[in-house]
Amino acid sequence: MFELTVESSFAAAHRLRDYQGKCETIHGHTWRVAMSVTAPAVNQIGIAADFHDLKTILKQVLEPLDHVCLNDIPPFTELNPSSENIARFLFGRLKALVQQHGVQLSKVTVWESPTACAAYSEQPRFNSV
Ligand SMILES: [Zn+2]
Questions:
Q1: Burial tier of 21 (Cβ tally within 10 Å: 0-12, 13-18, 19+)
Q2: What is the pTM of this model?
Q3: How far, in Å, from the CA of 78 to the mean position of ligand 1?
Q4: What is the pLDDT of residues 107-124, one digit of tens each?
Q5: Distance from Cα 25 to the centre of ligand 1, integer Å
Q6: Within a 10 A sphere around the Cβ of 39, how many other Cβ atoms?
Q7: pLDDT digits (tens, 9 = 90+) for 17-67
Q8: Domain boundaries defined on the chain
Q9: 12 CA to centre of ligand 1 in angstroms
């Protein structure tokens, strides 16, 4: 199994509802987003999927989030725009798009700072206790 990852970023404002602390007031982040896909095999030239195609898909999906207040756009008018929820939202948007290129979306990771990220996956990666 191969796993390929591409990254992009967007800058946006948000505020967390029902949160007590700095993040309850509006502020901005440059979110870095990593999209990982898996493929069982490579083609005759050793490629599972074209990185350029994957980057294009990711940039297209991130474009509506760039330079907006996330709380103003669905689903974040209702759903708290946490890094966790942003990762799950992006996973839903990206899943079908990457399948058109013959690969499976495995994970979307969203960094809200260089030292804090949340990842969403539909595959069980951890054993629950
Ligand atoms: Zn924040």
A1: exposed
A2: 0.92
A3: 16
A4: 999 999 999 999 999 966
A5: 9
A6: 19
A7: 988 887 889 999 999 999 999 999 999 999 999 999 999 999 999 999 999
A8: 2-20+27-120
A9: 9
For residue 103, the CA-to-ligand 1 centroid distance in Å is: 32
85 alpha carbon to ligand 1 midpoint, in Å?
Answer: 12
Rounded Cα distance, 106 and 116, in Å: 20
Q: Report the CATH superfamily, name and number, of domain 2-20+27-120.
A: 6-pyruvoyl tetrahydropterin synthase/QueD (3.30.479.10)
What is the model's pLDDT at position 127?
A: 56
Sequence-distant (≥ 6) Cβ neighbours of residue 75 within 8 angstroms: 89
Residue 73 has pLDDT above 60, yes or no: yes
DSSP-derived pairing of the beta strands 27-39 and 2-14:
antiparallel
